[in-house]
Structure prediction request, 264 residues.
Amino acid sequence: MATVLEICSYLEKLAPTNLAESWDNVGLLLGRRNRPVERLMTCLTLTAPVSAEAVERQAQMIVAHHPILFRATKKITDATEEGRILLQLAEAGIAVYSPHTAFDSADRGINQQLAENLGLQQIQALRLIGDAPNSGAGRFGVLEKPLDRQEFLEKVAMTVQSRSLEVCWHKNQIVKQVAVACGAAAEFLDDAIRAGCDTFLTGEARFHSVLEAQSRGINLILTGHFASERPGIEQLAKEIAQQFPEIDCFPANNDRDPLTLFMA
Prediction:
């Protein structure tokens, strides 16, 4: 039976921690390294419902994309939501690993998957990180066949399994070269423009970033933070299961987008 440490070693090969942003907190955040793992759950964010699900489904390990221990923490008590989650998991003996921005940028990570699923070809990193082959922040590539606005937006919605998209579009512009960066990644707008992209897709962006995209003539698509990353976390469960066939790996059912649509 594989241990927490063996799974961590695999995850560090899949998404090397040196690819993570300097501000990030990746790796094993909670748990005993020698604990055997029979059941493993993946999720985007470790919320109270997700934590309860892990306990109920008797998981020994959670791979949570977003690190629960992100800012400096001096106390872990039941006075906070984060503290209650960590105490519940520690009491149940459940380990927690977060790959976050390392997995975003890995050569088989979320951005690479997103680019491939959109049908992009000649895929490259938007921003190189060191000398890591085939890795880097964001991705860009070209469509095999140029698409109009309607065709491409339908493709995006199907790819990220979303019923709604926020769009800032330039009239009659055809989509040929596309940049993607999951999560909240408007900081890569300049990189997308320098790469010659006509369209940039990310999860969320500030209002003034949208205005900048509009003024600089690049289409901007906001899928929602959750939608841009959740498919990659579902795929991660499959990847771990393939590497460790003796482990029951599954994505969390209670890992849901906190935002819903109200149609007036």
